[in-house]
Amino acid sequence: MNRSRIRALGAALPAGEFTTDEVLNRMSSGGEFDVERITGIAHRHMVDRTEEDTLTLGVAAALDCLAGSGYDPADLDVIICGGTTVHDGFRMVFEPSAAGEIARRIGAVNATGYDVANACGGTMTGIYLLDNLIRAGVVRTGMVVTPEVISPVTEGALAEAVDARDPQFAALTLADAAVAVVLDRAVDDAEAVHYIDMITCAEYSGLCIAKPSDSTENMIMLTDNLTMQAAPRRETWAKFHRDVLAKKGTTFAEENFDYIVFHQLGVGFTEKLAESGSKIHGAPMPPRLACVEKYGNTGASTHFLVLRDYLSRGLIPAGSKICFVPTASGMVFGVLSATIGELVK
């Protein structure tokens, strides 16, 4: 059976870098928030709306990824775009697809393309689809590109949120970034995507909702943080992973992961997810990779932005087995197990 591997990884950040204090100083609602103390987020990048958008970030990440892949754009069979926002970042546009436009701009003349929308689970959903296309022999090489321009939601919170219990608090943690991942056929288990699976729990569907504001022209995001971080919900990823492993006849401890990467919501939240993992799996968690303090919550791009950051600093050796844990919009959970090789230069 064909298997896929993560052949290359690219990323792009907006030029504008801000401290959390600098962002909060623009608050016009009169609210006061200690976002850095609560979340650990000290810095973030946000787009300049006059020069940057979803497509410019996506193209930059795609080209960065191709530069380290050994492939030309024309070698790609498919491009899947997994970003939450489409096109200019300020309007939801479904046609033409962002994937198709990114393919055109980078010269991927032989690639078909389509978008998937699954909130902060978009990248993992794209990899899930691409991995299955490669396993089925439908494509040989493809790219998942995720440009996240979600700071407009932060602008809504700056105008409307009033205190730390406000449902728009989480919007004050958001930032912009893009990642791109090339998958091709694996040769052996020494460098491969071992498995990827996801689940949607409808009972949590109301915990995180983005929508137009009822009182202003802003986009806003409303989050029930207390329920999101309560034990039943934050244990869901580990219970799902435990069930996936049971079907394979193995356990978390037997998987011997070298690292684990959670969705970068905040330092404290990833610690709670790790605690839940240890409890449900009955095993210690491997070292956590995290960079939320440097980049904020960049939505669907967070997991691979973390990996890119550690790889750029030479902190991940080839042959590392990594557990990625996506959680999205309160109700999407999943797991990706992969051993990396060529990513380490």
UniProtKB/TrEMBL annotation:
Entry-linked InterPro entries: ACP_syn_III_C, ACP_syn_III_N, Thiolase-like
Residues covered by the Beta-ketoacyl-[acyl-carrier-protein] synthase III N-terminal domain: 114-190
Alphabetized GO MF terms: 3-oxoacyl-[acyl-carrier-protein] synthase activity
Pfam assignment, any one: ACP_syn_III
Alphabetic keyword roster: Acyltransferase, Transferase
Gene3D superfamilies for this protein: 3.40.47.10
Positions of the Beta-ketoacyl-[acyl-carrier-protein] synthase III C-terminal domain: 253-335
GO BP of this protein: fatty acid biosynthetic process; secondary metabolite biosynthetic process
Protein name: 3-oxoacyl-[acyl-carrier-protein] synthase-3
Organism this protein belongs to: Nocardia bhagyanarayanae
